[in-house]
Amino acid sequence: MDGTITQPARFFIPSKYVFSFYDGTKLDDKTRGKLVYKGFPDTPTGQLADETNNPATQQYTWFIGTGTGRTASDAAGILKSRSAAAPLFFASETYFLLAEAALYDYLSSEGDAKTNFVKGIEASFAFLEKEGAANTLPSGANPSQDTQDYITTNSSSYLANFDIAGTTDQKLEAIITQ
InterPro entries annotated for this entry (predicted)? Predict the structure, then answer.
């Protein structure tokens, strides 16, 4: 291998569809976009199975924190550090499952669909904003406020604003989208 870019490397970038849930096309989610993608909002994007028009990039696009090199120990985002535990199931997923169950009147003792939907978004922010193996929020991080800002910014979209999801199908789509 001579160090040149190969065709498979073109697929280590987010698809245009997935990226649209962060960049304002479908939803505007700059906070999580910066915590998930390196160089957001200028992250290279591509289209699955398009072998001619996807940008060639020498770097992966997953955000790996602000530390340096492979030994970065305190990074926010998806990849925390080499010594951080790897969750098998996220708290956010639990809340979204509870929201879906409540939508169909299962487990009503665990809260209503909207409450669990909002808790799921907040848990997502909390996980992404926590740093490193210590699993602590840095000074100034506020997942609760980020959740409210996200919902307010996307107030005209039922995918983020549960109050305007008029049908069960729209509510389910909102839950699954998150």
Answer: SusD-like, TPR-like_helical_dom_sf
Looking at per-residue pLDDT, the higher value among 173 and 37 belongs to 173
| Structural domain count, the chain | 2
Q: pLDDT tens digits for 130-160?
A: 887 677 888 899 999 999 999 999 999 999 9
Handedness of CA 136, 142, 144, 150 (dihedral sign): negative
88: number of Cβ within 10 Å: 6
Residue 39 has phi, psi (to 5 degrees) of 75, 15
* Cα–Cα distance, 163 to 86 (Å, whole number): 34
Q: Are 98 and 110 in contact (CB under 8 A)?
A: yes
User: Which structure tokens are listed for 27?
Assistant: 């939803």
Using an 8 Å Cβ cutoff, are 99 and 175 in contact?
A: yes
The pLDDT tens digits for 28-82 are 999 999 888 888 898 888 887 776 777 766 566 665 555 555 556 667 777 776 6
Q: How far is it, in rounded angstroms, from Cα 136 to Cα 130?
A: 5
Coil vs helix vs strand at 136: strand
Q: Of 63, 94, 113, which residue is a domain's last?
A: 63
Residue 22 tokens read as 């962060």
| Residue 48 shares a structural domain with residue 100 | no
